[in-house]
């Protein structure tokens, strides 16, 4: 890298954030396009209770772009100057662009969901089950319902799942209703289960069938969720695909350049 005082800073914020591969992915892209003197991408652990102070720091330091991961995708929204229409519909922001002092919120997570899925199947009329009801689940719900899927949401707190159903349609269940999930064509885990402990899973293996597609938003080492699916002969999509596909759009929003997808995929894998 060829960093100078003119280099613009981009970053990912989360809690935890040390596991994030976004810095490697984005910095590899900057280097491939020979713009690593213009941009650098770092990670920053931010407590959700400090998000107000963090945004003040973004304005003072003129941070160029921020990627938001858990638990900031919803919490950050009141502090932004503008939120684009898709992010408003989703109700969560994973991307913030500093446009000459105006902080604009976007959501590219939905592309991270729909792009890998549409490479292997059509979504219209498919029965899609989401596990979780947080920011990533909102993006997934928007992604699949915008393509005509029939949605079911499972969550520990039924009320949170019902709120998403009110927005995107479908049916809500508590996690103790997972026996119904065997009817799903596609199952997407949007919870953080499997992030800290790769041997932990949100979905009992007995509810997985070989005719399904299982998509885990958690990335890094292969999760138990995906290992169980592979043992059943089920088609799987790893979280790294979501990271890559949402990051490609993020890259362009931050820099104005088309992302070098092959380079970014290689560094992730």
Shape: globular
Lateral strand order in the biggest sheet: 2-1-3-5-6-4
Main β-sheet: number of strands, strand sense, barrel status? 6 strands, mixed
Superfamily (CATH H level) name of the largest domain = NAD(P)-binding Rossmann-like Domain
Unreliable stretches covering 5 or more consecutive residues = none
Strand content: 15-25%
Arithmetic mean of pLDDT: 95
Could you characterize the architecture of this molecule?
With 269 residues, the protein is an alpha/beta fold. It has two domains: 8-107, 3-Layer(aba) Sandwich (Rossmann fold), CATH 3.40.50.10860; 110-241, 3-Layer(aba) Sandwich (Rossmann fold), CATH 3.40.50. Helix content is 35%, strand content 21%. The chain is built from nine helices and twelve strands. The chain has helices spanning 22-32, 51-61, 85-90, 109-118, 135-145, 158-168, 224-231, 239-255, 261-268, and strands spanning 8-14, 39-45, 65-68, 82-83, 95-99, 102-106, 127-131, 150-155, 171-174, 186-189, 213-216, 235-237. The chain has a six-stranded mixed sheet with strand order 2-1-3-5-6-4. The chain has a six-stranded parallel sheet with strand order 9-8-7-10-11-12, with helices on both faces. Helix 1 packs across helix 8 (239-255), helix 1 runs antiparallel to helix 9 and helix 4 (109-118) packs across helix 5. The longest helix is centred in the last third of the chain and has 17 residues, at 239-255. The radius of gyration is 18 Å and the shape is globular. The protein starts with 7 loop residues before the first strand and ends with a helix. The mean pLDDT is 95.
